Amino acid sequence: MEPEKPYYASIMAHFKKPYWVFLFLLFTVITILSIQMSTESILPFQFFRVSGSPKPDDVADPGSCAGLFGELPVREHVMSIKEFGGVGDGKTSNTAAFWKAITHMQRFSNRGGSQLNVPKGKWLTGSFNLTSNFTLFLEHGAVILGSQDPKEWPLVEPLPSYGRGRERLGARHISLIHGDGLTNAVITGQNGTIDGQGRMWWDLWWNKTLKHTRGHLVEIMNSRNILISNLTFLNSPFWTIHPIYCSNVVIKGMTILAPLNAPNTDGIDVDSSTNVCIEDCYIESGDDLVAVKSGWDQYGIRIARPSSNIIVRRISGTTPTCSGVGIGSEMSGGISNVTIEDMNVWNSAAGVRIKTDKGRGGYIANIIINNITMERVKIPVRFSRDSNDHPDDGWDPKAIPKIKGIFISNIISLNSTKAPEIAGLEGGSYEGVCFKNVTVLGLAPSAAWHCEFVSGCTNAVFPLPCPQVQNNGSSTCCL
Ligand SMILES: *[C@@H]1O[C@H](CO)[C@@H](O)[C@H](O)[C@H]1NC(C)=O
Ligand SMILES: *[C@@H]1O[C@H](CO)[C@@H](O)[C@H](O)[C@H]1NC(C)=O
Ligand SMILES: *[C@@H]1O[C@H](CO)[C@@H](O)[C@H](O)[C@H]1NC(C)=O
Ligand SMILES: *[C@@H]1O[C@H](CO)[C@@H](O)[C@H](O)[C@H]1NC(C)=O
Ligand SMILES: *[C@@H]1O[C@H](CO)[C@@H](O)[C@H](O)[C@H]1NC(C)=O
Ligand SMILES: *[C@@H]1O[C@H](CO)[C@@H](O)[C@H](O)[C@H]1NC(C)=O
Ligand SMILES: *[C@@H]1O[C@H](CO)[C@@H](O)[C@H](O)[C@H]1NC(C)=O
Ligand SMILES: *[C@@H]1O[C@H](CO)[C@@H](O)[C@H](O)[C@H]1NC(C)=O
Ligand SMILES: *[C@@H]1O[C@H](CO)[C@@H](O)[C@H](O)[C@H]1NC(C)=O
Ligand SMILES: *[C@@H]1O[C@H](CO)[C@@H](O)[C@H](O)[C@H]1NC(C)=O
């Protein structure tokens, strides 16, 4: 069989001193692969050929988000923050300058669009809003710094699909950079930086004095045609990038960093949004690198805004207490047609994590996870059921999520401590779960899959899966 040699070599490259147990393991794996591997394509559909998505003709390069947001738009009116009284000394507040700039530039939304340049320097500011047909452009060496005064992150209404602030009841702090009801807005530049200086907020969280839910670094709501690219985002108070109720969103070429212990500093949270493409990002943070969500319990069920048609590819990074990619636990509006591929995760608690609970309702369907490499990830694949957090007492215990069609293929996990764990809810099994060419190495000989309320199939998997997903000779397994 063709792939044996490079496969063997790529595993060997990770181990300096192979010993005989390891070699034995490896040959077992290769033997299983040789027996079971089929040559058919594992993908049940072509992602970009689904109805409502761009047609193949529109996709310049199938391995790129270009089909969703092509060329960077050229804006007719280009101005610098300096023209609005901005001072880039790291001390002077630029909140008023950004407000003046945006207020001025709004009038160009339907007259050729506008671009606000932020030159080299340190630009301290409170929260500001973006506008339509607008580009915020951070030049090389430009750093936007988040204000250390909580009043500069004013309170806004809770999101309807959450019914309250995610962390505290009632209103929540607005994000540092905010957009609502936009079309065609871009945040980009020459790898400039937006630094939320979140330390103050993490302290409030740690010492339990936080009064209102922390703000995101960037939140875009009710918008379409959004591009965020080629920048470095640091130290978000809370989740870093949060598109919610949006469509046609591209996030690309980003570096997102927060201290590994900074609470809930998720990299990117796609929430109740459709046609989203995320690629080529490096993310290191205190929570999931990328998460897909769609609202919380009875509020999410009522608003019923799903997340669908989402591609996440070529993401790498680490998060010691959370996962490379997380789906849920807030998933009450439904999540479907998600493809996650070509990811590299290390030193993390989990690689691929799906979280649900009673009361969530909604569904998770048609999830493709392909070509993930993990190193020192404790539990490479973990689907669980007990998130055990609800917005209030109004959740419906009979609202059980429906989960169907999760295709996991071409996974190699080195130095893991646990085999895959899949625990569905009673009456809400993980159905149609397929594992193909999944190899988890480094486990103790006693390590075994843990399965409850799951049905599905496996093909070329090591170690031996639980009976619920064993391929009992079926030829239609994992097609
Ligand atoms: C943005 O620009 C497009 C094309 O120039 C125009 O059709 C649209 O109305 C503009 N949007 C807004 C909100 O002004
Ligand atoms: C920004 O938009 C939000 C609503 O989305 C609004 O509450 C807030 O006042 C706006 N901020 C500024 C500075 O205009
Ligand atoms: C952007 O800057 C960050 C932080 O300095 C750096 O790690 C990253 O490699 C840079 N990205 C590019 C594409 O130069
Ligand atoms: C909690 O953190 C805030 C923000 O850093 C700080 O002002 C306050 O003194 C801290 N309180 C305690 C009890 O540590
Ligand atoms: C990102 O930066 C590269 C190199 O500077 C540039 O060619 C590319 O067009 C930019 N892409 C986006 C989507 O901003
Ligand atoms: C998901 O993809 C399927 C095709 O595989 C398509 O029929 C369906 O409409 C898509 N769902 C959504 C919500 O876009
Ligand atoms: C798998 O993903 C890695 C990035 O993590 C990429 O370099 C490699 O080309 C991908 N392999 C295939 C077969 O696409
Ligand atoms: C199995 O998956 C690994 C990791 O992605 C890949 O390197 C290898 O080529 C795959 N094997 C086959 C037979 O597809
Ligand atoms: C896995 O663990 C072994 C033994 O501790 C170590 O020698 C090897 O470098 C580790 N490999 C990776 C990829 O972490
Ligand atoms: C395979 O067989 C086991 C034990 O006989 C059984 O528990 C399991 O449900 C079967 N799996 C499938 C997918 O049929």
Automatic annotation (TrEMBL):
What InterPro entries does UniProt report for this protein, alphabetically? GH28_Enzymes, Glyco_hydro_28, PbH1, Pectin_lyas_fold, Pectin_lyase_fold/virulence
Superkingdom, natural source = Eukaryota
Protein biosynthesis in keyword set: no
User: Could you confirm whether the keyword Transmembrane helix appears in this record?
Assistant: yes
Q: Which Pfam families match?
A: Glyco_hydro_28
Keyword entries, A-Z:
Glycosidase, Hydrolase, Membrane, Transmembrane, Transmembrane helix
**Which residue ranges run through the membrane?**
20-39
Question: What PANTHER family does the annotation carry?
Answer: PECTIN LYASE-LIKE SUPERFAMILY PROTEIN (PTHR31339:SF4), PECTIN LYASE-RELATED (PTHR31339)
Q: Which family does it belong to?
A: Belongs to the glycosyl hydrolase 28 family.
Stated name of the protein: Polygalacturonase
Q: Which organism is it from?
A: Hibiscus sabdariffa (roselle)
